[in-house]
Amino acid sequence: MISEPCCAAAMARLRFLRCRRLLLPNLCHNQQRFNRCHSLLNRTAGTTSASGCGATSSRSYSAPHAGSLTHIDRQRLREMNYIDPEGPVTGLSEEFRIVKRQLLLSAKGGKGVEPIDRGERILICSAHPNEGKTFCAINLALSMAQEKDNRVLLVDADFAKPSVLGRLGIEPARGLMDALADPTINVEDLVIHTDVNGLAILPAGAQTNQDTEYLAAERTAKLIDQLTRHDPSRIIIFDSPPALAASPASVLALLVGQCVMVVRADETTDSALRDALSLLSGCDHIQLLLNRAKFSPTGRKFGNYYGYGA
Ligand SMILES: Nc1ncnc2c1ncn2[C@@H]1O[C@H](COP(=O)(O)OP(=O)(O)OP(=O)(O)O)[C@@H](O)[C@H]1O
Ligand SMILES: [Mg+2]
Questions:
Q1: Which fold has domain 13-78+93-290?
Q2: Residue 102 CB–ligand 1 contact under 6 Å
Q3: N or C end of the chain: which has fewer CB within 10 A?
Q4: pLDDT by residue (tens digit) across 8-64?
């Protein structure tokens, strides 16, 4: 169970899509509703060290057993305010249900909505560090993994400061950057399959000072296509570095169909948000997700309805 501020904090609201102009006053005053606007802004045997792509540091990797499922500690998930896949319905899980529905609708279409190109690839970004990207990416992945028609691949794309494996209590492992640097590596061999039904993880991999250049290379697009071809039911969620602090975010935006911009309530400034959005202009479908909001003007509060408390 999480405290009330955390529930509210997880309340995030997707805001605008296809942004060409930012309705920032709405962001401030109508934090709890969706809104569309049209805007002007517009894992290997043994232990190995990171290498092969201009590595600036090394990470030691443990070896998963081929074909086995990596355990994710549910107690740990609960303690860190992540959704427990087998746990009760909570305010947090309800909020992410709402968020994922919008994203899945755009990805798959339905109810008169055409699916958007590459909509099954979703970048989770924010302007600055510490605004909740990884928190939202993991929770969204855990929520989407419960879908009956989809599986989820959570990609740690914060190559300089990867945190997905650590948060989930998984040992460091090779990942995307290794596959980008070495064409002989089959990226699919690096995917970590977990004991959370439907959830797989692709680690960031070797640290390099050329991450942006690797991402911009033609091979990256092909490699990501390969990830989709391997399992067309996959929703791929990329946990991005902050747009205003690291250049890979803007390149990642070119590779995805949807971007979720996490906005930290009461902290992300209008100008930072505008600046970050302009850097992500390579993606036509950007939605805002308000994180860490402390109250709902409408009194909306999910979780109790199911009788578990939130
Ligand atoms: N809604 C929330 N409720 C509770 N805790 C949260 C929430 N959002 C973020 N946090 C916590 O705040 C901290 C920072 O969040 P997180 O690591 O997701 O940010 P980030 O944007 O990924 O940062 P970075 O840019 O450094 O990667 C983490 O400890 C995370 O668990
Ligand atoms: Mg992060």
A1: Rossmann fold (3.40.50)
A2: no
A3: N
A4: 333 333 333 333 223 232 223 233 322 322 222 222 222 233 344 554 455 556 555
